[in-house]
Fold this sequence. Notes:
Layout: E1 5-7, E2 10-12, H1 34-48, H2 54-82, H3 86-98, E3 100-102, H4 103-110, H5 114-126, E4 130-134, E5 143-147, H6 149-169, H7 175-193
Antiparallel strand pairs: 1-2, 3-5, 4-5
Amino acid sequence: MGKGGSVAGVTCAEGDPLQRYDTGMGFDPSMVTPADFEELAVAAVRRDTAGLDETAMRAGFNLVRAANSLVQAAERKVHRPAGWSWPGFRVLFIVWICGEVEARNISRLAGVTRQTTSSVLTTLERAGFIERERCSVEDRRLVAVRLTQQGLEQVQPTFARHNRLESQWFACLTGEEQRLLAGLLARVLSHGGEPRPDDTPHDGGSAPAPADIG
């Protein structure tokens, strides 16, 4: 590229680390590392977006990347071996904590649609982890959900393994830094970041398609 140049339409100064992705024949996305993609994305959006809040973009960008990374690691190392997916664990965790809970409240607490909750519950019930019971003869939508003995015996040790993964994952931070991070994220959520079921067509950024959940 010589002195300076551009990568993916983004002008790079001499010595810019993004220059390494110029092959001399154009931009090669297959060479971009996840760390450098942030810089590439910010530079490209800055070029095309007036009034860009770069700090907020970086915060959101890394929050999503971190959450996806943790979810993928937990699902691969802990939850799939236990017999359920990440969405399945979210539902089981809510039922475990509440003891018995209506399906509509699972949707509300998980921030997903009732349709998604129903699909996950069907899969978990088929596997023997939960059981459902109609709460009302008049309103068939009211369904109580509880763990079976099999579900209880499996979710408790599985959560212990999940928590050990969390401990490993956050070991790069001190205890005080972890408390600060948790508090800051809670503040963001209380500011209006909590998802509402009506706003969420599926189970979040990294969730599988409906046919693959549970």
